[in-house]
Design a protein that fits this description.
- The protein has about 200 residues and is α+β, with helices and mostly antiparallel strands.
- Strands 1, 2, 3, 4, 5, 6, 7, 8, 9 and 10 form a ten-stranded mixed sheet that branches.
């Protein structure tokens, strides 16, 4: 990157894996970037469900789960870092009148663009009793890139990027998220296939 070019900031963007990315975890993945700066990036894969449901997860942490809309929802494999820890991506919960906004939970990252990512147990306690944020995606682990690492992967054409659409995170069926993310760019997977035929 030339010294005079402004650093890119992909916070609140999706990384969409190019079809040529032959990685067991990241192949055909959509990653929501919670943070991106010159020091690196942090994100959650939003389309790779684990084999446990939220009901299983809440049982493991000794909490009831009274919300019927969440009992069968999957827990996601957010990435290879700290896979024993839960990361809750959710809609903003602070009071709009507060300036600057104060997160409701004890360990919350406010993401520019209006979402929040919480790692403290209090958000699970709120959800378990029917309170807490209505729209949630819970993952085990997260994805991280060191300084300059994501930028070089972008230069190698490993990823496409697009501004995130929260409907894709919270409302789109998991199996459709990769295709729908591509459609945000007006693309279909076959258009990007390395072995697509030429007329």
């Amino acid at each position: 990157m030339p010294a005079d070019s402004a650093p890119i900031n992909l916070t609140n963007h999706f990384l969409i894996a190019m079809p040529g990315l032959q990685d067991e975890l990241f192949g055909r993945s959509v990653v929501y970037l919670c943070e991106h700066s010159q020091h690196g990036a942090l994100g959650l894969v939003i389309n790779k469900p684990c084999d446990i449901s939220l009901k299983n997860l809440f049982d493991k942490v000794d909490l009831p789960l009274t919300r019927k809309d969440l009992t069968e929802a999957p827990v996601f494999y957010g990435g290879p870092v700290q896979t024993e820890r839960g990361f809750v991506l959710h809609e903003a919960t602070f009071a709009a009148a507060e300036q600057p906004p104060e997160p409701v939970y004890s360990s919350t990252m406010c993401i520019a663009g209006g979402l929040e990512m919480t790692t403290s147990r209090d958000v699970l306690e709120a959800i378990s009793t029917g309170g807490g944020p209505r729209k949630v995606l819970i993952s085990l682990g997260y994805s991280a890139w060191g300084e300059g690492q994501l930028e070089s992967e972008l230069m190698e054409n490993s990823w496409l990027t697009v501004v995130a659409d929260r409907r894709l995170i919270f409302d789109t069926p998991v199996a459709q998220r990769y295709a729908q993310a591509l459609q945000l760019l007006g693309l279909e997977a076959w258009m990007l296939s390395p072995d697509a035929g030429h007329a």
